[in-house]
Structure formats: C-alpha cells, structure tokens
Design a protein that fits this description.
Blueprint lengths: L2 H8 L13 E5 L2 E4 L4 E4 L2 H4 L8 H12 L12 H13 L6 E6 L2 H16 L3 E5 L8 H4 L16 E4 L15 H12 L7 E6 L15 H10 L4 E5 L23 E4 L10 E6 H4 L14 H16 L2 H22 L3 E7 L2 E6 L10 H14 L1 E2 L1 E3 L5 E4 L7 H19 L15
Parallel strand pairs: 3-13, 5-6, 5-7, 7-8, 8-9
Antiparallel strand pairs: 1-2, 2-3, 4-10, 9-10, 11-12, 12-15, 14-15
C-alpha cells in the first residue's frame, strides 16, 4: 500500500484539499522528496507557509535550542522569552503609531477570527466589510467574515457587508480603476450599511485564494481613506502575501496605506504553526481571556518565528523575492506568447497568478485546463495548485529563498505541460477524484 493510500484510509477528508496524489517523505530548500524518490520543485511551499524552504538551518537550530531548555508551552498563564522577543520584533517591523500590542496564535484563521471579534467588541460597532472572494480562514469566526465560494456551507456574520474586489483583468462595472466599487460603497453607507455601525474593513492587498488579483493603483488608498473618514478601522490580511513575499515586507506597503491592524501567518512560522495580529492596545487589550488557546505563544513556534524574521533580514529575502519574482513573471509572460490558454499573468514578487482561459477574446475561465495542467506538472516534477473564484488561476508561492535557476526550471516544466495539454496528450479525466479548490 502506498503512502497516499494509507493517508486516504487514516486521515479525515474534512481537512484535505487535494489536486493530485502527492505524498512526501522529506524536503530540502525548494524541493520536496516524493515517496517514490522523485525530487519535486515546490512552487506552493505548502500555500506559502514554508517561507525559508524546507529544512532551513536557522529554523532547525532555533527549534533545537527552544526544545533543549523549553520555557513551558504557552504564553497563556506565564511570560516566556521567545514569545516576548517575537512580539517585540514584530512591533519594530510592522508600522504603526501609539501604543500597540501583539496577539500570537496558530494560524491566519485564528488570528483573523480574533481580530474580527475584537474590533466589534471593542468599538461596539456590529458590522464588518470584506471582499467577495475573500478567504480569511477556516474557523467559524474567520469564515463568517469571508466570502469565498468554497465556503458556501459557512454561516456569514449577520453584519457582514461584502463588496467586489477590483480585478483589472475582469473590471467590475467596466471600470478598471475600481471607482465604481467605491461609489457603490458610498451609496451603501447612505442606505443599508450605515458607516457608524461598521467596526472594520478587512482587505487583502493581493486577493490570494480569490485568484491572486493585484488591485489597480490607488484603489486601496481611496477605499481606506473613505472608511477612515467614518472612523472605520482598516485590517490588512497579510497571511499569505506578507513577510516579504511581495517584494516589500508588508504587502500593503505597495498601496501607500498604513492599516490599523496587521494579520500575519503562514510564512511567519517557517513551516510551524504560528500567526500574529499587531494592532492598537485599545483593541488588542480590550479584555483578558478574550481569545486564548492553551498553546498560543508556544516558545518553540515563537523561536521558529524569530529565526524566520532574522533570516529574512540577514539573507535579504525581501529583495530576492522582488528580483527572482520579476524574472519568473517575465518567463511566464514569454510562455503566454506561446500558449493562448494563458489569459493573464499577474502578481508581486513571489506571489504570482496565471489565469487560464478557453480563449483570450471571451476570457472564459478554464477550470478543466487548470486541473489537468497542475496534475501534468506534478508528473513532470513541479508542485503548484490552482485557486480563484472560477478555479482557473495557477498560484505560485514558492519559498522566498528561490533562485533564478529554479524559477527557470519551473517555467520549462510549465512550457512542456502546456504543450502536452494543447496537443491532447493529457487525459480529460486525469484529475478525476481530486476536488481541488
């Protein structure tokens, strides 16, 4: 019995999102080791969580030190130095004025849920604004403020107001600037969504699971200025695209916006469960025991987080993400000239989306091609997945340590996979049994 078959027998399907029968036994740098011994170039990095690549020495050493003299397992009822040092480091790295605090958790889901609950409780305003297609997590509270199609089963917050995300490739209301979205929000403020009832606006500086969409220049500033004029807090969900991935440490820096609250996760732990929310003390200290779990502030995970922050700085990985990401996008745009099923290439740094379409004139999403392509790429040695409201956008979030040669290798594999699709060499039912995103 294969490792994948054993997984199917033993592990709950509730926690799975599978695209092909990937089963791994190890990994190093930008590569995974399959249970069949193959080296697979990892362009997902576990959805961006393995920010320094697999088995980075700095994370290993930090975890070993923390376990050798373990300062408990939590920050719940005792201070521990790794958690305090991580919080202090984040306060230095994340912009903001006044007195601020850091909340530490396990994932972007619990961090977004905590912030969503805290802003409502602290301000007394019962409503939240988020974007259609937004994915802020998989807990009940984070799903309640999300609006992604994959979570149709989830109960939305009663006061949630959803607005479209501006997509330059598919402009809402034929307005590529996103101005119509802001106009409609102003109308909503005058009608069914009084702004004095809204606690916070949750934004994704790049819409991640909604399709790796980069907003048009100036939109986020106009939107946040409007909300701030009504006393509405601005929360930036940096879980997937922060931590240097976009070519700036905080992705929202591209938008000339300084949020009130930042939410971090995934790459912060370098592959270990760790998240953080950084915001005003008036929100983050609103009440004791308001959002706590036994292992929050775990010193081993916090030590890994510190190692990630130190390594990002020491190895200049923010600049590397910008440089290698630009080269990768150039390579992908070259592929677009050869393969008409590529409708759009977009992104910032090492957060890149490639949208597949049936034809460029109609821009009709091609979900079937995406499912077949990622499966064929896996067969050829490349791991990547697809996202988006139409399940047709290839998502690339490789380790921040990615080098140019690895980027070129991925482009070559995709070129061959695209050729195989175009020539009918990939079976239509190749991804049968894999639900995908």
């Amino acid at each position: 019995m294969t490792l994948y078959q054993r997984d199917e027998r033993a592990l709950s399907k509730l926690q799975k999102l599978r695209f092909f029968p990937l089963a791994v036994t190890g990994g190093e740098g930008s590569y995974l080791t399959g249970d069949d011994g193959r080296r697979l170039l990892d362009f997902s990095a576990s959805w961006g969580a393995v920010s320094l690549g697999h088995g980075h020495g700095a994370v290993r050493e930090a975890v070993d030190r923390a376990l050798a003299d373990q300062a408990g397992a939590s920050t719940l009822s005792a201070a521990n130095e790794p958690a305090v040092k991580l919080a202090e480091a984040l306060l230095d790295l994340v912009p903001g004025g006044g007195e601020r605090r850091v909340w530490l958790g396990h994932s972007g889901s619990d961090a977004n849920e905590t912030v969503a609950r805290a802003v409502v409780a602290a301000t007394g305003r019962p409503r939240v604004i988020s974007f259609a297609g937004a994915y802020h997590g998989g807990t009940a509270g984070s799903m309640a403020i999300s609006a992604h199609g994959v979570q149709k089963h989830a109960e939305r917050a009663s006061g949630l107001h959803v607005i479209p995300y501006p997509d330059p490739y598919r402009p809402y209301g034929d307005d590529p600037t996103g101005g119509r979205i802001i106009d409609e929000l102003e109308q909503a403020f005058r009608a069914d969504c009084p702004p004095d009832q809204v606690a916070a606006l949750f934004i994704e500086p790049i819409m991640s699971d909604g399709g790796l969409i980069v907003p048009p220049k100036g939109f986020m500033k106009r939107l946040t200025d409007l909300c701030r004029s009504h006393g509405i807090l601005v929360v930036s969900d940096e879980v997937k695209v922060g931590m240097g991935r976009s070519g700036r440490f905080n992705c929202i820096e591209h938008e000339e916006v300084e949020p009130d609250i930042y939410v971090l996760g995934k790459g912060l732990g370098g592959g270990l469960p760790l998240s953080a929310a950084v915001g005003p003390a008036s929100i983050m200290d609103f009440a004791s025991s308001f959002s706590m779990q036994t292992l929050h502030g775990n010193p081993v995970c916090a030590s890994a987080g510190l190692a990630v922050l130190e390594t990002v700085a020491a190895e200049d990985l923010v600049a590397n993400a910008a440089r290698v990401g630009a080269a990768l996008q150039d390579g992908l745009r070259t592929l677009a000239h050869r393969h008409p099923m590529i409708g759009d290439v977009r992104g910032r740094g090492l957060a890149i989306g490639v949208e597949l379409v049936t034809d460029r004139a109609s821009r009709t999403p091609d979900a079937k091609a995406a499912a077949k392509l990622v499966y064929r790429a896996f067969e050829l040695g490349l791991v990547l997945y697809y996202v988006g409201a139409h399940s047709n956008v290839l998502e690339m979030t490789p380790p921040l340590t990615l080098i140019r040669a690895e980027a070129d290798a991925a482009v070559s594999i995709l070129d061959r996979a695209l050729d195989d699709l175009a020539q009918g060499r990939v079976a239509d039912d190749i991804a049968a049994g894999f639900e995908g995103w």
